[in-house]
Structure formats: structure tokens, C-alpha cells
Amino acid sequence: MTRYLTPALCAALLLGGCSHKPEAPAELPAAPAQWRHAQNGEAVTDTWWRSFASAELDALIDQALRNNQDLAAAAARLRQAEASSRAAGAPLLPRLDGNLGASREGRLGGNGETAGNRYSGGLAASYEVDLWGRLAADYDAAQAELTASRFDRDALRLSLTATLVEAWLRQVTLDERLRLADLNLNNAERVLSTVQARANAGATTPLELAQQRGLVAEQRRSREELRQQADDVRSNLAVLLGQGEPAATSSASLAALQAPSLGAGLPSELLLRRPDLARAEAQLSAADANLRAARAALLPRLNLSAGANGSAGSLNRLFANPLYSLAAALTAPIFDGGALAAERDRSDARREELLANYRQRIIEAFADVQVALNAGTGVEAQWRAQQEVQAQAERALQLAERRYQAGADDLLNLLDAQRTLYAAEDQSALLRLARLQSGVALARALGGGWSAAPAR
Predict the structure, then answer these.
(1) Which residues form a coiled coil (predicted)?
(2) pLDDT at 411
(3) Looking at the domain assignment, is residue 280 inside a domain?
(4) Mapping DSSP to helix (H, G, I), strand (E, B) and coil, where does residue 165 land?
């Protein structure tokens, strides 16, 4: 409900509005003094995945950036935000409307009077003077949301590329583990042939024959489990690539891939390198602007209007003698059941929510980098130790098989040596994957070479 205001009421509302001042900038979480386990390396670029030196991976990334539907949806949201920003800026300018009408008038009954045409037209201009910055705050909020949408698209692009690289590395690793499973199955079947020959000659027991047959069956089961996992990964890759059919089998070699050697930089620089943090900051800026607009909505509004209207029997005389009007109106809410105050309180609480979210994202960003650095150091140490584990497992199998063939040992030690070697080879493949994934995790945590580009 609005009423024209007296000067005294205007002054009272003005004084009440001035009591609402912008919030002081809140303190943000402090950055760590330095990273633990940081290594010297190259700076992250926005094509960091090319460090794997795989043309196949490069082609998959290009396909995903073209066809991924989540990325397409983010681009559409960005266009929506651009349109909303233009709409929010429109009230800052005057509005001009025009109308034109035509009618034909005459008497009914055929008394011979001639019917006549009548034309009317008018122009109406209106403008709200932004006394307290409400309209400007609405526009600032829309601009901040536009910026947040742009950063959201960039964050999704980073997430898409990192997720696709991780999925592709899992596919390559599963192909390698399948190859190892086939080799171990062939080896188990070869040993089974030896046990079968000894059983036929009466040199071994049915128990040993059954044990080796069980080991062969176990290797086949493990191979089929890996095959299923490989099929699942190809299906997941298809989703990221924006295609309906599963992705093709990779031709890359796990042993030929090298993890990117990346430098973590300074912890204090991280806030400027991650699009998700920039998005959270832009959302907080939008909330600040919305709060300013909600507070200004409690204050009076000044509207100016002007109009010109004409009416004539012919179009060329329509505005020969127009009527004009000029008006100014100062209005303010008197009683609205607390709706405007509630909107102000809601905007204030929303700002507090986004501020807490922003702080939490900062804390998580520092943790992401540190966890990735920890993984890089820890996995590298495990990898070096695993090389010795695998070498000794290979030697143990050779010795156990020779002793069994010579009749100097029973099958139990040979079975154990076979299982140990297979587990060692499989663990080596998994650790090689973990080394590569730690590089991907670090690139993602550091922002993937992102920087805030100029608006476009």
C-alpha cells in the first residue's frame, strides 16, 4: 500500500534508511604458510593433460568439450544470466511507450449521414529516479550473477576434463590389468598341465591337482571381474564424451604414461587460480547487492512521467494539437504486513549463508592441494618399494616351480608363489595408476591453469 508522502514522513523514512549500512568485509580463512611435500615443477596450464603426451587423450578431451551435455547446459545458463543482466539494467533508463488506434464512427439507420474515420495516438515516458541506489543494486546483483555463471562454466570445464582424464587412466589401467590377468591365467594353466602330467604318472596326489585347478578357476573369475570393470569405465567415458555407445578400447600403454610434474606455487595465490572460489566470491557479491536493494526498497521512490496524446480525423493531423502531461510522484510503503522487512532479513541471511559457503570452499581448496601433494609423495615411495616386491615375487615363482618339477617341494609353495606374483603385478599396476591420478588431482586442486578472463 502506498501514499503520497509529506516532507516530515520522507525525512523520517530517510533517517530510518540511513541506519542500514553495508556490512564490513568479513575475515577469510588464513592461507597456510607453505605447502608440505611440495616439489619443484612446471606451472599448471589450461592444457595440462597434454603432459601425458597421448594423442588419444587429447582427441577425447576435444570431443568432450564439444559434446558434453552438462557443459552445454552451463553455456545455456550463462546466456540466461547475460539476458537477466540486460533486463536488470533496463530500469536505470527511461521507458517510452507508444500507442496508435483507429476507429470508424457513424449513425445507424441509413439517414444519409456520412460515416467518418477517427485516429488516436500517444506517447508516454516514465522514469524512476534511483534515489537510494535500489535499481543500481539490482543491476550490480545481476552482473555478479553473470560473473558467477561464467565462473561456474569454467569450473565445470575443469571438472569435466579432470574427470575424463581420470576415467581414461582407469580404462588404460584396467586394460593393463586384464593383460596381466591373461598372462597369469596362461601361467596357471601351464602349471596345471605339469601337475596333470605328474598326476597321470602317479607322482602327485588328486588333492594337488584339485588345488591347481582351483587356482586356474580363480584366475578366470578375476579376469572376468576386470573385464566387467573395463566395460563399466567405457560406459562412463561415453557419458562424459556425450555419446550413447560405449567408448572404444584404448590403445595407450600404461607404462608409457608419465604424470605431469607440477609446481604447487604459493598457498596465497590459490584463491586467484580456482574458478569455484571465484564463483563463490561472485555469488557473495550478488548477495551483498541484493541486500542493498532490499534495504533501499524500504525507502521512498520518486517516479517521473510525461505524455503526449492526440486525436484527429486524419493521420497527418494526429499530433497537430496534442495534449501533454507532466507528473512527479513520491511514494513509499506505509503498511505491507512486514513483507519488505522480511525480504531484507531473508537477503541478510542469504548473504550469511553464502559467506559461510565461501569460507568453507577456501578451507577445502587448501586441503585439496595438500592431499594431492601428500598422495604424490606417498604413492611415489610405495611405488619404489613395490618394484622390489614384484621382483622378489617373480624370483620366488621361478624357484618354486623348479623345485616342484624336481620333486623337491610340494604344490603348496608353488600355489602361494603364483598368487603372490599375481597380486604383486596387479598392485604395481594400481600404484602406477595412483601416481598418474595424483598428478590429475594436483592439477584439479590448483585450478587447471584457470585465470579470470575478461567478460565476453
Answers:
(1) 209-243
(2) 83
(3) yes
(4) helix
- The secondary structure element, H or E, covering residue 380 is helix 339-405
Residue 50 inside a domain? The answer is yes
Report if residue 6 sits inside a domain: no
pLDDT reported for residue 7:
42
pLDDT for the residue numbered 434: 94
Residue ranges of the chain with per-residue pLDDT less than 50: 1-22, 24, 456
Q: Which pTM was predicted?
A: 0.84
Based on the structure, what is the number of domains in the chain? 1
CB count, 10 Å around CB of 128?
17
Residue 421: which CATH number?
Answer: 1.20.1600.10
Determine the structural domain holding residue 85 and report its residue range. 37-96+118-446
Chain segment 347-390, per-residue pLDDT in tens = 999 999 999 999 999 999 999 999 999 999 999 899 999 999 99
Asked, for residue 107, whether it belongs to a domain, the answer is no
pLDDT of residue 370: 95
Chain-centre distance for alpha carbon 241: 16
Q: What is the DSSP string of 136-159?
A: HHHHHHHHHHHHHHHHHHHHHHHH
Give the H/E segment covering residue 95. Answer: strand 95-105
What pLDDT does residue 17 have?
A: 39
Return contacts of 6-13, CB within 8 angstroms, 24+ apart.
9/332, 10/300, 10/330, 10/332, 13/298, 13/299, 13/300, 13/332
User: For residues 441 and 91, what is the distance between their CA atoms, to the nearest angstrom?
Assistant: 46
Distances in whole angstroms, Cα of residue 149 to Cα of each of 76, 351, 353: 10, 18, 18
- Give me the residues paired with residue 213 across strands: none
> Rounded to whole angstroms, how far apart are CA atoms 359 and 122?
55
Q: Which residues fall within 8 angstroms of residue 305, CB to CB, at 6 or more apart? A: 124, 125, 126, 127, 325, 326, 327, 328, 329
Taking a C-beta distance cutoff of 8 angstroms, is the pair 294, 344 a contact? yes
For residues 324 and 310, the answer to whether their CB atoms sit within 8 Å is no
Say what angle helices 339-405 and 411-445 make with each other, to 10 degrees: 150
CA distances in angstroms from 395 to 190, 267, 398, listed in the order given: 17, 46, 5
| pLDDT at residue 303, as a whole number | 93
Strand, coil or helix: 202: coil
Residue identified by cell 585465470 is 451
CA-CA distances (angstroms) from residue 90 to 78, 139, 144?
19, 9, 16
